[in-house]
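Entry 14. Ran structure prediction on the chain below.
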Amino acid sequence: MKWWMTGVAAAALLVSLQPANAVLVADGITYTLTEADTASALTDRFTLTITGINAAADTEKGRAGVNAIAFTTPTGFTTATFIPPPTGFVFVSGGLNSGGCDASGGFFCFDNTAIANGGGVSALPPLGVNSSLTFVFDVTTATGNFAGYDPHLKIDWVGSNNNYDLVSLAVGITGTCVDCTPTPQITVVEPASILALGSGLVGMLGGAGWIRRRRNT
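Output, structure tokens:
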């Protein structure tokens, strides 16, 4: 029984490890989306934090700004609003393409009207090395129930490159709201925990061998 309990304890240790936040990493840029309740029963607040812009890991660099950003709509979607509205951005129903919001598909979009060329090379100066951007927006639905909402992010960058990769990928949610479903988080296994699991497995195997020897005598 002792060897069995050792193995169970080691497995439990791995399960209880501190998880890492669910994030999207694309072209060396990290996108983290969080969700929280608001005073309104129908509205949740989302915060998109973008880090690593023009850093060493950024595979494209020279980024000067965001031309457009879009998310898939939750069930019963009615509207989305930037808090506070960034200069030049306007709400558009639908997704986006390389020219900005295109008013099609099951998305809502924020279009940066301050960028006249609609994408590609921009006359704006590049953002700082390893800089970050934060977008805060409220999303309202008919019921206020965001359970099961698994948004996909689309984002179109501008800068010194003629074209940047048009990101269109699922982005995990982390949050504290009562009606949202955060994306399952990644468990990081530390070396000490691996050793503990190994010790537990050795104990389990040793115990199993001892039982077999007892039965054969």
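The first strand starts at residue 19 and ends at 20. Will compare against last week's run tomorrow.
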